[in-house]
Amino acid sequence: MAFFRRTTIDHLYRWLGVFTALYLILISFEFFLNLHLRYPTLERLLDALAEPYLGALAVYTVLKEVRKRREGRSRGYRGEWYVAAWLVLLAVTTAAVMFTARYQFDVVFGLILGNSLASLMIYLGSRLHRP
């Protein structure tokens, strides 16, 4: 039974990692390529997935901590790079909105702003909550 639980947690951890990474990639492409002009429902889809994304990110962070404690060692985790990617995306999109006429503060930029800050807060919370 422990084997099944361990592999279930590992599979969930991987799937949540894939989902959160795909969301980041999709929102980046949508912002820079204005994909909503070609695919009008994409913007609504990203908006609808924003809250499940944040839930998945929180569960992913908890599972990461569970895996660290279970294994008794701290091996390489991509959380720091993931948060850095969100912050770089936020910096670049903010500059694009502020200094170009092509990009505006729209729904997608609002999602990038909110998700970037939420990712940073979740990461900081996990770093500060070290036993």
Structure explained in plain terms:
Helices cover 81% and strands 0% of the residues. With 131 residues, it is mostly helical. Helix 2 packs parallel to helix 4 and helix 3 runs antiparallel to helix 4. The protein starts with a helix and ends with a helix. The model has no long low-confidence stretch (mean pLDDT 85).
Q: Any low-confidence stretches, pLDDT <50, length ≥5?
A: none
Helix proportion: over 70%
Number of helices: 4
Order of helices and strands: HHHH
Give the helix/strand class.
mainly alpha
Radius of gyration: 17 Å
Beta-strand content bin? under 5%
Record field, number of beta strands: 0
Average pLDDT for all residues: 85
Count of domain modules? 1
- Shape estimate: elongated
Taking the alpha carbons of the first and last residues, their distance comes to 28 Å
Outline the biggest β-sheet: none
Short summary of the structure?
81% of the residues lie in helices and 0% in strands. With 131 residues, the chain is mainly α. The protein has one domain (2-128).
